[in-house]
Structures
1.
Amino acid sequence: MATRIERGRFLIFSTAVFGYQRRRRRCALSLVATLSCWGVLGCAPKGISHPKTIPVKGKVTYQGKPLTQGTVNFLPEDSWPAIGEIQPNGEYTLSTFEKGDGAVLGFHRVVIFSTDANPRLMPGSPHYKTPKELIPKKYTTAESSGLEAIVEPGTKAIDFELK
């Protein structure tokens, strides 16, 4: 009987210790995840500095006509990417850390996504249809797009004419 009690105490003790360690580990992982999200989403506390960005705007055309929807993504080699939503007139404005702040300085590979997807409809909802690509698929990857840009002081507009 004494061995069962000792085992019981050991189990209670070990569960309490290991449970505490698990909670502590979970808390630490949550903290790391939160800080990472702040950095990725650009909503870090005011004291954290970011690389310098230059405001960049431009226009995307496909076969001579403005692309009416999609996104333009600037992908630097070793820094934060920038993204801009294509407006109905084909124009975009890049954002990295805050809306409209532009892209970090340097060389960027560029990818563009454009489908006829309705953002209000989710897969499985009534009237949903599989989105159709509005531009050739080659423009959706950095390796195949062939699109590049250099962002430097004085850069204002970077236009892309897709064929």
2.
Amino acid sequence: MASLSDSPAPRTHERPLLLGSVLWGPRFVDTFCRTALASLLAPDNIPACVGGGEREARFLIATDPADRPRIEARPEITALREFMAVDYLDLAKGGSSMVRMSAGHRLITARFAEAGALAGIVYPDSLYADGTLAWAKRAIDAGARLATVACPRACVDDLLDALELERSGAALSVEAATLGRRALRHPHDELLRCFWPRSTFGDRPAVCAWPVPAAADPPSALLLYSLCWAPLLLDFSALAGHDAGSLEGWTIDGDYLYRNVGEGRDGTVAVPAAGDPALIVSLSNPDQGITGLRRHPLLALPVAGHFFRRAMMRHWLNDPAIDPLKRVLFRRPVVWGEAPADVLAPVRQDAERALASVEAPPGAFDRVVYALVRVRPRLAARLWFLLSWPISKLPGRFRHGLRRTLRRPR
């Protein structure tokens, strides 16, 4: 995985800068303009990357033709045209949201590949910290083929109202540390169910999260290990070929990046390091995505709970939906908000210990444990009692020895 100091040889030729987004309907249009586009107009995002007009710069919008007047009426589009041309691609009607989003991503990435551009898909319901795009461009200029940032569904959309004071005209400029800190005050259930230490930890999580400090609620920072990464900028001129096969029935969030850049172990994939200004926060309505937190009694057990979580993650990380690039990126921690090094360090040690063996394929024990977690909580608790009751009758020295054995990372 690349940092700016160990990337391959830098490339200096000016490739076209293309960005693209897929959206339709009044609500989607307004969300895109108020969040993604407004935050990309911050000084160290689009304005810092267009090169004073020397490079070709275009923003592609795949949408329903009926939505164009509404888009054109937005002040953010007027401000965008000061830096980039705006091109519309007709998005066919019909089909599910997944089908339409997939079709839009195919249209846009085909244009990216044809132009050999430095290009990225913009998530229309996300906020980009000021400096995110400039960081990505520096990473690509230093030799990386892909600059990517963790982007799980994280916050309810009332975060945007809390950030309105940061708006200057059409632009919304928020530094990464501030955005991360404020995001933690407006968490979505889909993020809360990913808190590893809690008994509400859910199956197939988008991230594994640890609050910093460990006992804080709400925390001042969050340590994340993510399976959701946004394709911020990809150098299409450096690709041996463009593989869009995954976009036939999936969006850009599938294995598209893996098909085109591989596992990223050769320094061709850049991710933000501590202190970098890059951060993306995905917004959602409180009733969208996975909602509601269900406490599972087995995950509340002090020792056994670790093994239940480990079994859940082993199954998920070895699921065919998780490609090798996602597994590599999963082990790159991300910090939202701010925390002193002496406060963050023990939390990270706990996280690394917990995740030390989750990438191993699930064994027979993991499959039994995972099956227990998947059944109804009350039934699972009864089954666990039947399994653990014989152990409780062992002499103390055998019980303690067994406990020490089970606690060792595997």
